[in-house]
Amino acid sequence: MAMINKLTITLLLLISIAFFHCFAFRVEFEEFEPPQQEEQEGPEFRPGGGPSGGGSGKGFEEESTENPFHFAKRSFENVFKSNEGFVKLLPKFTKRSSTLFRGIENYRFSFMEMEPSTFLVPHHWDADSVFLVLQGKGVIAFVTDSTKESFHIRRGDVLRVPSGVTHFLTNTNDTVPLRIAKILVPVNIPGRFQDFFPARSQFHQSYFTGFSKQVLSASFNIPEELLERLISRSQQMGQGIIRRVSPDQIKELAEQATSPSNKHKDSDMSKFWTPFSIFKQDPVYSNDFGHFHEVDPTSFSQLQDLHIAVAWVNMTQGSLFLPQFNSKTTFVTFVENGCAHFEMASPYKFQSKQQQWFGPREEEEEEEEIGGQVQKIVSRVCKGDAFVIPAGHPFTILSQDQNFVGIGFGIFASNNIRTFLAGQENMLNNLDTVATRLSFGVGSKMAEKLFTSQNYSYFAPSNPSRQFPEEKRTPSFQSIFNFAGF
Ligand SMILES: *[C@@H]1O[C@H](CO)[C@@H](O)[C@H](O)[C@H]1NC(C)=O
Ligand SMILES: *[C@@H]1O[C@H](CO)[C@@H](O)[C@H](O)[C@H]1NC(C)=O
Ligand SMILES: *[C@@H]1O[C@H](CO)[C@@H](O)[C@H](O)[C@H]1NC(C)=O
C-alpha cells in the first residue's frame, strides 16, 4: 500500500517535473518513509503499536461496538510509539458519526506517555491545546524568538499550549512514567492538525526541509555542507521524538523551571501558558463517595478564549455519580483508573456502523427527527477508554471494581450549568407539587416522596447487592438501544 503510494507519488513527481521544468518551482523529494497519517483509511489498528496492556486479549475486530459514544482503548491510533513512550490520538469524532459529532468536529483527543528520564523534542502544532497531567512529574518549556519559560508540572496540572508555540517536555523522574491527556483545537483545517519539528528525527522531517539549501545557507549564513549535517543528516536521525536523557541533562533541563505556583515572568504569553493545578481548588462536589474537581474558562484566563473546561472525578468503589446533564458543554472523557458502568439517555437516533457503511450517506438522512423515543446507552468503560457526553443528555456513572478516576475536557464550557436530577439538590425537587402531580400523574403524597428520598447530594452509595445491567461483550444493536422505559 505504502509502496504503491510512494511509487505513484514518485511517478507523478517525475511527470510534473518533466512537464513543468520550465517553471520556476521545483519539488524536491528526499528519500523518506512518511509517518503514518491519521487520515488514512483502513483498520483502526496500526502496525507498530498495539493497545498497551492488551485489553480483553480478544482480538481487535470487535471494534468498540455500535455504541457511538464509547471509544474503546483500541480506537486510539498510535501517532508515535517506541520504548521511550507513545502518543495516541483518537480519530476525528466525525469519522465515527458525522451527524452526532458535527458540533465537536474541530476537537481532537490525544494522550501520551513518556517513560522515566526521557525528553520529547521541540515542536509546535497548528492547533491550540489544553493539557492535563494524569501522572508523574516533569518539566515543560515554551520557546519563542523573544522568550523562554519552563515550568515544573505534576499530576493534576492543567496547562494551555498555544497554537504555534514551540515546546518540549522532560520526564524528570527516574521511576514514574509521565502521562498527559490533551484536547486539541486545530486552527487551519477543522479536526486536523500536524506536528512541526525544527529538527529531524526517525519518522519526522525537519520543517527546514521545505526550504532550498541556498535560502537556508543565506539565512543562517553558514556553508551548505554544514546545513546538510544540521538539518537532514543529523546524528539523531535514527531516534524517535521521545529520547532517553541522562541525569545531568535532566538537571540542566529542570534548572530554570519555575513551579506553577511561583508567579510569573511577565512575558505576554505567560498568562496563556502558566500551568495551574486542578487540585488547588476545593472540589466542586465532594462527599465520602466521590470528589469532582473542575476548572472552567470563566475562572482561568488560560482557558477563556478556547471555552474549554477540565474536570477530574474520583469515586470510591460502588458509588453513583447521580444523574445529571450539562446545559452547553459536551464532555470528552477518559478513564484513568478502574471501570465504571455508564448510562446515558439520548433522543437522537443513530445507526450501527454497518448500516452507515452500506446505507444512505448521512447527509441525506438529516430530516428533523420526530419520534419521542429515547435510546438507552449503556456501556462498561475501563482504564484507557474514552467516551463522549453531549450537552443536554442526562447521564450517570456508577463506579465498579476499584476506585474510579475519570477526567474530562469540556467543550463550549463558558456559562455551562450542570443540573442534577436526583439527590438533595435536584431539579425535580424544585418543581411545584402541582406541577409534579400534573406531569407525573401522581398524588400529592407520592409527588413529595418521589424526589426527596435520596438524602445524599451529587455522589451516593449504590446498593451493592443490586444488579446493574452489564454490557455484553459483543452487544447487538438492539440490546444496547432498548427504549428506555422511563
Ligand atoms: C520519582 O518519583 C518517585 C515517586 O513519586 C519518588 O519517590 C522519587 O524520588 C522520584 N525520583 C526523582 C529523581 O525525582
Ligand atoms: C481519590 O480520592 C481520595 C480522597 O481524596 C484519595 O485518597 C485517593 O488517592 C484518590 N485516588 C485517586 C486515584 O485519585
Ligand atoms: C438518609 O436516609 C436514610 C433512611 O432513608 C438514613 O438511614 C440515613 O441515615 C440518611 N443519611 C443521611 C446522611 O442523612
Automatic annotation (TrEMBL):
Composition skew (Gly residues), residue ranges: 47-58
Keywords: Signal
Superkingdom field: Eukaryota
Region (Disordered): 33-64
InterPro entries registered for this protein in UniProt: Cupin_1, RmlC-like_jellyroll, RmlC_Cupin_sf, Seed_Storage-Functional
Coiled-coil segments: none
GO biological process: response to virus
Family assignment from sequence similarity: Belongs to the 7S seed storage protein family.
Protein name in the entry: Cupin type-1 domain-containing protein
Highest classification ranks of the organism: Eukaryota, Viridiplantae, Streptophyta, Embryophyta, Tracheophyta
